[in-house]
Design goal:
hydrolase activity, Glycosyl hydrolase, about 400 residues, 4-stranded antiparallel sheet, about 40% strand, Tachylectin-2, Chain A, 6-stranded mixed sheet, globular, hydrolase, single chain, mainly beta, 3 helices
Length: about 400
């Protein structure tokens, strides 16, 4: 499972920055003739930098992990509805023969932070609630109602609750989601909350406190102007926000994967500075302890995760040098790149009832995502979102 560990979309730039600065000669005679033939390499005495990377990173391996995504529109309440934001679908649970998902819902466009009106919606996910819907076939969806709403004035989630993920465990249902406390400013910290229910229709009971917060005590803002790029120091990798939680039961513990953003976000080789970590708990309601190995990936605007072969597999979305890759970790922490994939749909919600052990990418057979409905002359902030269905088709069968 360790092939393609260092595959990066920006391979040439990686070489320029790191590999090309070292002059240690390696012995490439260890590679078999079969591998050389597969990669079209005639001999190991005359290797270009590209051929060396191909050998070192195992470009001939893991064909069974590769494939391509397709997206199609849905019907019912998940058909596009002008002026309505439906996005960030959770995992899809099959309960008593019917599919369920939870998602972010709000009304109207975002306006950004410069309107001067603190009550104006700033992002598509601002002033949102978490709703749920059900379907008999995964194509035609019925919106069932609100699951979790914004908290009372003064609470940690009184501005918005959004980007949910769901876990069914021990006869109960657990929603984890992102929260914002008013006012919503550029320097506002985000946290992660949890709600619990006995059945998918609720009622949902929120925990009194967030289950995860950013490392806000690290780093230092520069000046008093509401500018998230102005810092004295950045602090830890998640010093500003914790985002996009996804929860999974693993090895008799609970792994909460989350995206972190830090004060004064910079640009990296892969674009935006973006990283993911994991917090682990013995009890599903916490406390969640951040892993000492964080960050566990330096890429991915969103992640989708599933069980496979005793470990954890994931799809990393856009952003970062390892964007649009499928990765696997035998311990749920040390992820290795298994495949590069294109056009990963935003906010993948996987179908929990699929047999993820059947094939490396069986968990991606179908699921939900979201898309932007662009309006002429409008920015993405002002666009609508609606939920779509994705499928993933493996390109190759496993080599024998």
């Amino acid at each position: 499972m360790n092939a393609l560990t260092n595959v990066l979309k920006s391979a040439a730039l990686v070489c320029f920055i790191s590999a090309c600065t070292t002059h240690t000669e390696k012995d490439y005679s260890q590679y078999s003739q079969e591998t050389l033939n597969y990669l079209g390499i005639k001999d190991t005495e005359h290797l270009s930098a590209a051929s060396k990377r191909a050998l070192e990173r195992g470009y001939d391996k893991n064909a069974e992990w590769f494939g391509h995504f397709q997206v199609e529109n849905l019907t019912g309440d998940f058909a596009y509805e002008p002026g309505v934001i439906r996005r960030d679908p959770s995992k899809v649970l099959k309960i008593n023969g019917r599919y369920y998902t939870w998602y972010t819902k709000s009304i109207g466009p975002g306006h950004g932070f410069e309107t001067g009106d603190p009550n104006k919606k700033v992002f598509p996910w601002d002033k949102s609630e978490i709703w749920y819907a059900s379907s008999a076939d995964g194509y035609d969806w019925k919106e069932e109602g609100i699951a979790v709403g914004m908290g009372a004035t003064g609470s940690y989630d009184d501005r918005s609750v959004f980007t949910p993920e769901v876990l069914a465990h021990g006869g109960q249902y657990y929603l984890v989601y992102q929260t914002v406390k008013a006012p919503y400013l550029l320097r506002t910290y985000n946290q992660i909350g949890m709600a619990v229910a006995d059945n998918p229709s609720g009622p949902w009971t929120k925990l009194d406190k967030p289950i995860l917060s950013p490392s806000s005590e690290t780093g230092e803002w520069k000046g008093d102007k509401d500018d998230r790029f102005a810092v004295v120091s950045q602090g830890e990798w998640d010093s500003h926000k914790v985002h996009d939680p996804t929860l999974i039961s693993y090895k008799n513990k609970f792994y909460l994967y989350y995206k972190g953003e830090r004060k004064g976000e910079k640009m990296t080789m892969g674009g935006r500075e973006i990283r993911w970590g994991v917090a682990i708990a013995d009890n599903i309601e916490g406390p969640y302890i951040k892993s000492k190995y964080n960050p566990i990936t330096h890429s991915g605007h969103e992640l989708a995760i599933w069980h496979y072969d005793g470990g954890i597999a994931m799809v990393s979305g856009h952003d970062g040098p390892e964007k649009e890759t499928i990765q696997w970790a035998k311990d749920g922490i040390n992820f290795e790149i298994m495949a590069v994939v294109n056009d990963v749909p935003p906010a993948l919600g996987l179908v929990q009832s699929l047999d993820s052990e059947k094939h490396p990418t069986e968990a991606l057979k179908w699921g939900l995502a979201h898309t932007y409905k662009a309006k002429p002359g409008k920015t993405w902030l002002e666009s609508d979102n609606h939920i779509t269905r994705f499928t993933f088709s493996p390109v190759f069968k496993k080599r024998i």
